[in-house]
Amino acid sequence: MNSKTLLYIVKRVLLALFTVWVVITITFFVMHAVPGGPFVGEKATTPAVQAAMEAKYGLDKPPLEQYGTYLKDIVTKFDFGPSLKQRGRMVIDIIADGMKTSMKLGLIAAGVAALIGIVLGAVAALRRNKLIDRVIMVITTAFVSMPSFIIGALLLALFSVQLRWLPANGSTAAGLVLPIITLALYPMAYITRLTRSSMLDVLGQDYIRTAKAKGVSGARIIFGHALKNSLIPVLTYLGPMLAYIVTGSLVVEQIFAVPGIGRQFVSSITNRDYPMIMGTTIILAALIVIMNLVTDILYKVVDPRITLE
Amino acid sequence: MQKKHFTFHVDLDMFNPASAKDKEYMVQMRPSSTFFKDGVKRLYKNKVAFVSFIIIILITLSSIIIPFFWPYSYEDQLGVQPGKAVDASYNNLKPFEYGKTEQALIDDGESVFPHIFGTDSAGRDYFIRVIYGTRVSLAVGFFASIIVLLIGTLVGSVSGYFGGKVDLIIMRIVDIIYSLPDMLMVILLSTVLKMTLTPVIAGTALESIGANIISLFIVFALLYWVSMSRLIRGQILSLREQEYVLSARATGAKGKWIITKHLIPNCISVVIISAALQIPSAIFTESYLSFLGLGVNAPMPSLGSLASEALNGLASYPYRLVIPAVVISLIVLSLNLFGDGLRDAFDPKLND
Question: What's the whole-model pTM score?
Answer without folding.
Answer: 0.79
